[in-house]
Amino acid sequence: MQGRTDFYNGEIVAGSLLFTESRIIAQLFLEECDDSVWKQKLFSDNILQKRSQATIKRLVSLIKNRLNTLNPDAWKLIATGSFDAANQMLLASAIKHSRLLGDFMLKVVKAHISLFHNQISILDWDKFLEECSHIDSQVSQWSDSTKEKLGQVVFRVLAEAKILENTRSKKILPFFLSPEVKSLLLKNNENYVLKCLELL
User: CATH number of the domain that 154 lies in?
Assistant: First the structure.
């Protein structure tokens, strides 16, 4: 029997962790800027330094959706924290925004680590999507190119988060959760996200 149709979405395809851009947007969140200031900074000042308004709109939409899953303490960590802590909090926001990413970490990356398999393959991604299609029937309707692109972005996210060595080798690296990030997640009862991030 096919599962529900609102469990997984492909929105992560719009971008990986976007560290530099997310730092800037998190700061704007903290400043509580109104719409006119947002437009001025993003489009007139081009603070993200992108070539087209379409690119700016696409990235800002994704980043806003991710940051909106967090609270001001997390925004501050992203805006001003160390690279590792901010990067891991961005990973947490990406997991909260994309169950596809979170479940891949839980069901594939974590499973590989527990079995002492230190490398992931494209085949693992294909098998994972097959499993997902039984949970959410819309996954089976995604085109092959969409599935491939989603895989590329998920692997890039994991490489940027230093969970994988790089997108080519897909070798799993030892991953240690920042105490600051863990503390914030515990404080906010983010049990699912913690399960995804506590890989060791």
Answer: 1.10.3540.10
Instruction: Give just the sign of the alpha carbon dihedral 43, 49, 54, 55.
Output: negative
pTM score of the predicted model: 0.93
Supply 124's token pair.
Answer: 């693992």
Domain membership of residue 3 (yes or no) is no
Within a domain: 191: yes
Handedness of CA 181, 184, 186, 189 (dihedral sign): negative
**Structural domain boundaries, residue 95:** 17-197
The string of pLDDT tens digits covering residues 129-143 is 999 999 999 999 999
Answer yes or no: is 6 within a domain: no
Instruction: Give the tens place of pLDDT for each residue, 48-100.
Output: 998 899 999 999 999 999 999 999 999 999 999 999 999 999 999 999 999 99
C-alpha 108/C-alpha 114 separation (Å) is 10
**171 domain-assigned:** yes
Averaged pLDDT score across all residues of the chain: 93
- Per-residue tokens: 148: 């491939």
